[in-house]
Specification:
CATH architecture: 2-Layer Sandwich
Number of helices: 5
Structural class: alpha/beta
Largest sheet: 6 strands, mixed
Distance between the termini: 40 Å
CATH topology: Chitobiase, domain 2
Helix content: 25-40%
Low-confidence stretches: 155-159
Order of helices and strands: EHEHEHEEEHH
Shape: globular
Number of domains: 1
CATH class: Alpha Beta
Oligomer: single chain
Strand order of the largest sheet: 2-1-3-6-5-4
Number of strands: 6
Mean pLDDT: 87
């Protein structure tokens, strides 16, 4: 039985989280986790430029699929899954549940709601190079709109 995290654990406010989920598979840890931290940096850079005007606090955090699926309190938060269904259980779960925004020859996949009402996304490629390319496409084409939508789902900060 998993232990549910509390909102005050480690000073993390669950209501502000944007989860970036990678597989607990060894290949995912080696290849996808560094990509997740790069995406986290991209989110932080966006926040530095935009969040003041939006008056919100969004906290990107990288975690494994095992942690995510066992923490029910996280599953309503905006979530980006990185890595293919073979190495990331969350991507496998999302495979038939999310719309495909971009599929390039079935080798690069970005699944998300283009209206950004549902803030779950899955990004992957058939190999590491293609996953990198898919993530770059996500950042270029979708990240700004995705983060603007995510920012509207957190409570404005008093300031």
């Amino acid at each position: 039985m998993s232990e549910e995290i509390s909102e005050s654990e480690a000073g993390i406010e669950i209501a502000n989280l944007l989860l970036i989920v990678v597989g607990a598979h060894l290949r995912a840890e080696v290849a996808d986790r560094p990509l997740a931290y790069q995406l986290c940096d991209s989110v932080d850079n966006w926040l530095e430029k935009q969040a003041g005007g939006l008056n919100v606090l969004v906290t990107p955090i990288v975690c494994s699929d095992v942690w995510y699926v066992n923490q029910e309190s996280l599953q309503g938060r905006p979530t980006i899954s990185i890595g293919g269904p073979g190495v990331n259980a969350l991507s496998a779960y999302y495979a038939n549940k999310l719309k495909s925004a971009l599929v390039h020859d079935n080798h690069k996949v970005i699944q998300l709601d283009p209206e950004f009402v549902d803030l779950r996304a899955s990004i992957w490629g058939m190999d590491h190079k293609l996953t990198v390319e898919a993530l770059d496409l996500f950042v270029d084409r979708y990240l700004d709109d995705y983060l603007r939508a995510a920012a509207t789902q957190v409570e404005p900060q008093d300031g």
